[in-house]
Amino acid sequence: MIKVKAFIGSVTVAGVLVLAACSKSDSPTAPRPSPTPSAATLTLTVESTPAYVGDVLSARAEVRVGGNAVPDGTPVLFSLRGNLCWYDLNNDNQVQDNEILPCTLFVENSTTSITKTTVAGIARVTFQSAAQDDVELSARYGPANDVKRFTVQGNPNAIVPAATAPRIFQLDPPVGNGKGGEYVTIVGDSLCSYYTAAGNCVQPGSVRFDIGAPVNATRDAPVVAASARGDRLVVLTPQPSPNPLTQDALVSVVVTTLAGSATATNAFRFSAQQLPPLIYSLQPSSGSARGGEVVTIYGANFEEPIKVEFSPGGVAQVVDVPPGGTQITVVTPQNSLPLDADTSASVTVTSLFGTGRDQTVTKANAFTFKAEVTTPVLYALSPNSGPIEGGTRVTIFGSGFQYPVQVLFGDREAQVISSNFNEIVCIAPSIAPSQPGTPTTVQVSVKNILTGKTSSNTLPYRYGEAMFVSAITPNTGYILGWNPATIYGQGFVAPVQVLVTVGGITKEAQVLSVSGTSIQVKMPPFAEAVGDQGCTPVAATFTVTNIGSNLTATGPVYTYLCSGGISGP
């Protein structure tokens, strides 16, 4: 006798027990349908094949008279015959008379007999089996009838609870590190709570680690995988303790399913954690105070995450910790100030940094930062000119700049905005008190204040009038075309006029836009410069005038080339 879960119609059946096959006298009787012509034929078809326990199954009866479908609404009597089942409706595991019912019933009325009417000559019916059953389905219309016999099989996709308690044979591997987080396979059988009817594991059992001294605690071990047959579970070992494990701890492993529990006593062992880290040496053992150099720390027991700190110096960037825990590759930190003399630094390594199980070791005087007394070198100024009132933001490009720095424009000190080893940004000072009548050029120099080193060279900076032109880009264009160009300088105020002169002929350029330091223009064509014998490149001069103040500045030479065409302004 077999108990199974089932649902019949809208009634939930707690348990079903197949008892015996029905005899013909067991079948309920039903009203006899009205007589029909003897020429009627009935064909019964079971549409659900194969038929599985718990599925809603369907069949149809096709009725024809004289070759034609019977009218809609014609009654057809359907009957079921099969085994009897015990439905434990009271869920008390006691058989009661009212709990003995057929295993297979019609869904519409939960009985074994039902009358359905035809639509387009076909009457349809649905039924359901609570257990595996040998079923006889019949349909009758007057003297016409048909019978089908079939077997309702166990559903291969049904989910059934485990029937056998689990067993544990061994754990593989039986030893793990004291931090947890490793994969371990439990080998046994019946290790799952639910299976398919075909015997495949659907839901694995739960796993618990009962950890002995010195931890004396219980930890759940998450199941990450299970074999199809439920004879292996892969679990992730839990962290036995937030503190370092100072000695080995034995573990009893418990697997629990719906069918029971199994315990493997002392089947696993957490091994004590590694010793604190050790530093043997650094290679190389010295380097630039500017940092950024690769250094390898040799030692033992290094475990990620790792923190490395140089003192003085700061925290180093950890690049690599190879397997084995004997090396750490770092990039040295940058000292905030230049060093006047070689400086020894202690190196501190922290293993398992930030995990709550940090372990630290320090090696004194393990590294030497070499003093660097550099001499500044100037490469370029951008821009290299500005008004006599100053205020121009100037970038100095070079090398060897060590904060803090002093920048001089001639004998006037500039305001330093920012500096690093290769670049200084400053504000050009005013030389207005001297009020030069013509453009004045001064030399720019840089001094590293802490070391007293002054730049080995200087660069010229031009102080000009309130308005001046420093450049035009591009400085060439086609003689027959309106060529775009940008005029650079200082003190431009719209509206402006740009006049271009070639060989005594002056024309006005088209001004597109004006800012304080640049003017966008289109240079006018000079077809007059093209003679009968062709032309050669010709130089032009141009002036810029602020119309509102009548201030004028002359720009550098602009060259017209002999190709291209007139395109219009």
Automatic annotation (TrEMBL):
Key words of the record: Signal
InterPro entries: Fibrocystin (IPR052387), Ig-like_fold (IPR013783), Ig_E-set (IPR014756), IPT_dom (IPR002909)
Residue ranges of domain IPT/TIG in the record: 165-273, 276-370, 375-464, 469-561
Pfam families reported in the protein's UniProt record: TIG
Keyword Amino-acid biosynthesis in record: no
This protein's name: Hypothetical conserved protein
Species whose genome carries this gene: uncultured prokaryote
Taxon lineage: unclassified sequences, environmental samples
